[in-house]
From TrEMBL:
Transmembrane segments: none annotated. This is Beta-barrel assembly machine subunit BamF. It comes from Roseivivax lentus. The keyword Signal applies. It comes from the Bacteria. Residues 28-64 are annotated as: Disordered. Residues 1-16 form the signal peptide. The lineage of its organism: Bacteria, Pseudomonadati, Pseudomonadota, Alphaproteobacteria, Rhodobacterales. It holds the Pfam family DUF3035. InterPro entries: DUF3035 (IPR021395). Keywords: Signal.
Amino acid sequence: MRRVHFAILLSAVTLAACSNDTLRTLSRTDGTPEEFGIVPNQPLEQPPSFAELPPPRPGGTNRADQQPLGDAVAALGGNPAALNAGAVPAADGALLSAVGRFGTNGNIRAVIAEEDEAFRARARLFNWRLVPDNEYERAYRAQSLDPYLWLERVRQPGGNIATPSAPPPGG
């Protein structure tokens, strides 16, 4: 009987060692650069007059650097110059006042990171695992939704919510 228990334990540990949770690991540990974080430079252009070039700024930006945020704003029909100036268009004033009606926190990312770490620490206090597990999935499992369950609830007879992009029923 002990051999059976040992064989089951050994197979469970072996299978757990084969799991790959790198899709949920957000930090790189192998020391290589993130391939999506590398932005190629724009093509070099000869200026109309070399006398009118701005002086070099060590550590600053240059004309050949990509501006991904400004390019995205321009592609969506916005004004990249207003983005660099920090100006808010007049049309967005009402939106910003509605969003900030309860006040804003300039340090929100650090606050959320601290709260998340405290929540995960509480979730793992008495939850010791023999094999590695996905910490985020375990901590937030109670707050997750089952998309297939909700799709079936929406598709109930008499429902008035269309689901054109969802898989067909039974598929």
